[in-house]
Write a structure and sequence with these properties.
alpha/beta; Carbonic_anhydrase_CS; SLC26A/SulP_fam; single chain; Transcription Regulator spoIIAA; Beta-carbonic Anhydrase, Chain A; four-stranded mixed β-sheet; carbonic anhydrase
Length: about 800
């Protein structure tokens, strides 16, 4: 019962007010600020840039990208993923030109966003992106390990590796101890015991490690190299400088910074969206925000910025509700940079190096390796890492992209070809199983595999393919002719969807023509795939079409039935044993001791109505009863339907009773015209008289169907569903179950021409494809709460 009070939509109730947002965003911004300061300083060190550049970039990332970006909870700033690129640019052009490159890259990012190409960056293979970040991480670790050990990092990865043993033999006491202490704290802090107070666990590990070890170094006045700022942040603001020549290298630098920063920002934004249930990111707007941030950061003498997952995840975990948190974190960095910069100069370089070693190591993720290995893309990851570490970032990324494209090309044009000997097949024949796309590059391997089949042997060629080009077709045809001339027998069994069935409707029909192929065999009639059922045997190639097996015009994917060519049932049984029995056996094994179906399903005997296909159900789901006209004569002398209903309710305890009619029903046609005759069929169709009478008197279901142009027969079929539901409801066992709330009644109607199912809701049939249908548990036919069958959720494959 409702009142006159206004109901506030749930979405409005769930939206926090600005006061609630501030109460959450202010403390979250402080946490992010404490994490961002040491990270920004460490990244500046790794980039061979002024330390103030890291703070400038962090402040701009919060204030500009935080305000303009399309990901409300993402936090931007200098990122480890760009350190190698920036260090290379600084070494090649100097800091002023690097700032100009950052400005130009920012403008390019803005153009990316305005032209709505944000999602295009996501088309880059994840294996390349993860490999690039891992390669950068390895490079950082190899260089900063020398600083942790008290030495100097070398010019390249190979030099760092060769010099590492010498560094290990000559450890520089205090610096090494400080760097290792930082690494130990960063690794141990996330593994604190569960009993540790929450406020302790909430202290950011980078802040704790840098602050604690710096205090120790200051208290004991340890003789170690410390950070040198060389002036205030305001003094560090310098305009960018254009290069003196080398414009090609300058353009490559701009493109590299823009693409890497865009990809990393977009991937981070997508990851942040998964961490919270709020507003999703606008990726094009995010690119505009990142571009504006990079433009201003470069103009002020700051590092390039990206969306950073470490700071962003910290922001979400700290309870941030809006972009105010990211903006405020930028404000706190500005205050710190102006008022407290002297504290930064107390930090030992080995401390920042230890922080960078952990950051770099965390860019190499075992979880990514395992995932890529499952998808067969680990080689791309490894090649990208090696390219980034031992050459440069751009070369490594290009190498990874080239390998990724080659692997995709291989999957597209390379077929798996396996030969099974008679001892390994049910029929005792040789089997040649071809899976994938069979194209000309696979012909040499196909020839070798076919050469393993002895002359004169019976062989089945299973083409589990989605594409077959003309060259492969010619080779197979020639081999089959030679093998049969030598006394052998060949059966070509086309299992895959090669796009042949609909090619007869095309005008060109060339080998590259790709059109929707036939449905799987368990959904298609025998005439489509059995050569012995309304199709001629053999393997033919019609003019203008490629590779049609055992088919006449209008048929495709036919299986030569061999000795059972005139018996489609036996052919179908053999196909079931060969391909489906092993797959369905585990489910039937679980059902061997009994059944517990979900629904009693009463439908017509019409061969075009296949209940398990229409309901996406399998063994054990439906207790099916079929008769002419899907009638429920439970009140007559025919006890078959009544007995089935009682067994379903009292023994199997099904919770749902379904009546399903269909279009073009022959029984309804005969009942409407009175052509059932005097025999058994005529007496049986007497059970439809009530439906005919209700239809003639203007049943509401018929009236609604007529407005949609349904024919008289189809209107009657729909009315018949409602009437049979009412008859079922009058059965004593059903009435008792409804009263006890143990069962509900469902009406369905299947339109054969469109292959669509509708559900009876009240006085009309609505499409079953709708997301939400009635789901009541009891009642009478026609009640919207009881006339809909639930559509079970299916995990995507």
């Amino acid at each position: 019962m409702t009142t006159g009070a206004t109901t506030v939509p749930s979405s409005d109730r769930d939206t926090p007010s600005w006061r609630e947002k501030l109460r959450a965003d202010i403390p979250a911004s402080l946490v992010v600020f404490l994490v961002a300061v040491p990270l920004s300083l460490g990244i500046a060190v790794a980039s061979d840039a002024p330390l103030t550049a890291g703070l400038i970039a962090a402040a701009v990332g919060g204030l500009v990208a935080g305000a303009l970006g399309g990901s409300p909870l993402q936090v931007s700033g200098p990122a480890a993923g760009l350190t190698v690129v920036v260090a290379d640019l600084v070494g090649r052009f100097g800091w002023g030109v690097t700032c100009a490159i950052t400005v130009a890259a920012g403008v390019l990012q803005i153009l990316f966003g305005l032209t709505k190409t944000g999602r295009a960056a996501l088309a880059i293979s994840p294996a390349v992106v993860h490999g690039m970040l891992a390669g950068i991480g390895v490079t950082i670790v190899l260089g900063q390990l020398h600083v942790v050990l008290g030495g100097e990092q070398q010019d390249d990865a190979i030099a760092n590796i060769l010099a590492l043993p010498g560094q290990l033999l000559s450890l520089h006491g205090a610096a090494t101890a400080l760097g290792l202490a930082v690494i130990a704290i960063l690794l141990a802090w996330p593994r604190l015991p569960q009993g540790t107070p929450g406020w302790v666990r909430g202290i950011p590990a980078p802040l704790l490690a840098v602050a604690l070890v710096t205090v120790i170094a200051s208290v004991f006045a340890l003789p170690v190299e410390r950070v040198e700022i060389g002036g205030s942040v305001l003094e560090a603001i310098t305009p960018p400088v254009l290069p003196d020549g080398q414009w090609g290298a300058f353009a490559v630098g701009v493109l590299t910074i823009a693409i890497i920063a865009s990809v990393e920002s977009l991937l981070s934004a997508v990851a942040v969206d998964r961490m919270h249930g709020g507003q999703k990111s606008n990726l094009d707007r995010e690119l505009v925000g990142q571009g504006a941030g990079n433009t201003l950061s470069g103009l002020l003498g700051g590092l390039p910025i990206t969306g950073v997952i470490v700071r962003s995840s910290t922001n979400v975990a700290a309870g941030a509700k809006s972009r105010v948190s990211a903006i405020l974190h930028g404000v706190w960095i500005v205050v710190f940079s102006v008022a407290l910069l002297g504290l930064v100069q107390q930090i030992p370089m080995a401390v920042l190096a230890g922080l960078l070693v952990v950051i770099g190591a965390r860019l190499v993720k075992l979880a990514h390796m395992r995932e890529l290995h499952r998808h067969g893309e680990l080689p791309v990851y490894v090649v990208t890492i090696l390219g980034v570490v031992f050459t440069d970032l751009l070369t490594g990324v290009i190498a990874g992209l080239v390998l990724a494209l080659l692997l995709v090309l291989r999957r597209v044009v390379w077929a798996s070809i396996e030969v099974q000997e008679p001892s390994a097949t049910p029929e005792g024949d040789w089997h040649v199983v071809v899976e994938g796309a069979l194209c000309f590059p696979s012909i040499p391997r196909l020839a070798r595999r076919l050469g393993q089949v002895p002359a004169g042997a019976p062989v089945v060629i299973d083409l589990v393919t989605d594409y077959l080009d003309h060259a492969a077709y010619d080779h197979l045809q020639e081999w089959i002719e030679r093998h049969e001339q030598g006394g052998g027998h060949v059966r070509v069994d086309e299992v895959g969807t090669m796009g042949l069935l609909d090619r007869r409707t095309t005008t060109n029909g060339g080998p590259g023509d790709r059109r929707p192929g036939p449905v799987p065999r368990f959904l298609s009639p025998w005439s489509v795939w059995q050569a012995g059922h309304e199709a001629r045997r053999g393997w033919t190639m019609e003019s203008g079409h490629d590779a049609q097996f055992g088919v006449g015009a209008g048929h495709g994917h036919a299986l030569d039935a061999g000795e059972d060519a005139d018996d489609p049932i036996l052919t179908g049984l053999r196909e079931y044993h060969r391909r489906a029995a092993g797959l369905v056996a585990p489910y039937l094994s679980d059902l061997a001791d009994g059944q517990s179906p979900y629904a009693f399903f009463l439908t017509c005997s019409d061969s075009r109505v296949v209940p398990n296909v229409l309901t996406s159900s399998g063994p054990g789901d439906l207790f099916t009863v079929r008769n002419v006209g899907n009638l429920a004569p439970v009140e007559s002398t025919d006890d078959s339907v009544g007995a089935s209903v009682e067994y379903a309710l009292d023994v199997l305890e099904v919770p749902t009773l379904v009546v399903c009619g269909h279009s073009g029903c022959g029984a309804m046609t005969a009942a409407l015209r009175g052509t059932g005759g005097e025999g058994v069929l005529g007496r049986w169709l007497g059970g439809a008289r009530e439906s005919v009478s209700r239809w003639r008197s203007g049943h509401a279901v018929a009236a609604e169907a007529a407005t949609r142009g349904a024919s008289d027969v189809d209107q009657l079929a729909m009315v018949n569903v409602a009437v049979q539901l009412e008859r079922l409801a009058r059965h004593p066992a059903v009435a008792r179950a409804i009263e006890e709330g143990r069962v509900r009644l469902v009406g369905l109607y299947f339109d054969i021409a469109t292959a669509r199912m509708s559900v009876l809701e009240g006085d009309r049939f609505i499409p079953a494809s709708r997301d939400r249908l009635g789901a009541g548990a009891s009642g009478t036919p026609g009640d919207p709460a009881t006339s809909a069958i639930p559509i079970p959720a299916v995990d995507p494959v």
